[in-house]
Amino acid sequence: MALAFKQETFRNDYKYSNSPNAIKRFPFPFAEDQYMYSVNIEPHVKGKTGSVSEFAFDVDEHYVGECLDKQLTLDLDRGRYAALPHMMDAQWDFVELTMEALSNDYPEHFSLKKEGLNWTWENKPLNIKQSFVFGDASTMPMDPFEFMSKQVQGDFVLLDQRDETLYADAGFVTSQADWSLAFDVGMSWREWHAPVPRATELGVMDRALKYLLNLQLGSPVRRLNWTMTVNPRLDTSPENYPLWGTDRNTVNPENVADKVHLRVELQSLFRLPRSNGIVFSIRCYLMSLRELSSYPRWAKRLHRVQKTMHPDLIEYKGMTKFHPMMVEWLSQFDDGSAMAVGTQPE
Amino acid sequence: MERGYWIRSKPVYTSLLWHEKATSHLVVAQGQGGMAVLKLFQLMHPKQAITVLYTPYAEADYSKTLVKVVPEGLHILETEQEVLAKLEIVLQGMCMGMRLYIAGSEDFMWSVAKVANKFGIEDAGMMKELTGTLARPIYCVHCKATTHGVTTNIGECSGCGRMLFVRDHFSRKLGAYMGLMIDAESPGELPEIEEIYP
Fold this sequence. Notes:
Number of helices of chain B: 4
Oligomer: heterodimer
CATH topology of the largest domain in chain B: Rossmann fold
Mean pLDDT of chain B: 93
Low-confidence stretches of chain B: none
Structural class of chain B: alpha/beta
Largest interface: A-B, 29 and 29 residues
Order of helices and strands of chain B: EHEHEHEHEEEEEE
Helix content of chain A: 25-40%
Number of strands of chain A: 10
Strand content of chain A: 15-25%
CATH superfamily of the largest domain in chain B: Nucleotide-binding domain of ferredoxin-NADP reductase (FNR) module
Strand order of the largest sheet of chain B: 3-2-1-4-5
Number of domains of chain B: 2
Order of helices and strands of chain A: HEHEHEEEHEEHHHHEHHEEHHHH
Helix content of chain B: 10-25%
Strand order of the largest sheet of chain A: 1-8-9-10-6-7-2
Low-confidence stretches of chain A: none
Largest sheet of chain A: 7 strands, antiparallel
Distance between the termini of chain A: 24 Å
CATH architecture of the largest domain in chain B: 3-Layer(aba) Sandwich
Shape of chain A: globular
Largest sheet of chain B: 5 strands, parallel
């Protein structure tokens, strides 16, 4: 099915919305009435036709808008891209993985032609055509990792595996939920996740690390993470906190349903063949409370999850100011009856 | 701060101890760190080659005692800048198996570490002892400047002038704690500024 790419903005006038189909396929993360961190990692296997996990990298109606927003954010702050010098093999691994996946899964939009090491990549939605020699960075207009990160929705971190841990040694990060690549680049797994409250005590990070150190080539994994964001803003970075921080004061009972968005990260991890590194893909989906409530089951579930949220998580996820209003608005969908486990919309 | 909660990126500093299997020893210290060097030599005078770079800081000056105690390779320097310059020269002549020991403020130790990194010495290969002050280097995530010697919970950025909340999250690569604009959500509203890293 050919995708109709929308013209959208993720800042200033915020021209963003989800089509009924995009709402229906939204990766709603709450299967139960309560939420706490867990090692919710599962194999990144092919999901149902039309679902966000049908392909390795999901391309949807927001593709063009998001790629333009990435470029805007990077132009304003070059620190959103970083790659330590020893990561060049991993950069080419990333190019191969993404080009092959996109051209196989979306042949009407992307194509890759190979003659030995002479490759030609074509991206029709973004109007990019590039011939290059695979493995020779001088034949690319920029770092190979930067080149392809700009053409796939989401953020990407390349992890180097050594000393029994994973180091975040390269990244392209423009749609992060309040963490800084410039600050975190070069950090080990434990250092990088250090500020996440409760996770360390629960042992979640250590268990996830153990799992990932044994990640196998060809068997990627995924998990969902979530937060709530005011306005459909991709760049909620600490760098630009002075720009978006005050948005949290603008929420009131009248606009809460349109301003507050459920932000879900589909995180997937792939072992890389040459570098033995891992690519950590963090794909962001945004949906307003109003859009979400077109499936009352989801609104009912979200009400319960939010109502019972641990206070530390409300604080950590930056929801303190608007949390009561959100719970109040969602309460209209909750009749108190029991709900079966599951994330399905209906 | 919640009891039992510990941000794991925060460096753990120990007391300096000789690595007996080192091929040579390089000790770099500032101010009160001179005491850490003296403690090392109380333990043992190692057989291997020794180099000590020392600069007095604030009121703390152990130069005279160090001259008596350190058997060889002692360099007393006037400023941190001179220490770092000398360190560059010394490291060029160092071989595998050299061990690096650093004592001083966090600002000082991570400035030394940054020079050592250039020579392929990884963080795990350096021993660090925090002495004299808890003052912190703060990296501003907004303008990317590092402000040195911050002793309060909130510090003014030397780059952009924003008031930064000092987060416990630490980057070894930058050698600094994260500073985040404290009043981004409510401009001008500042909590009380208190000295907590004297």
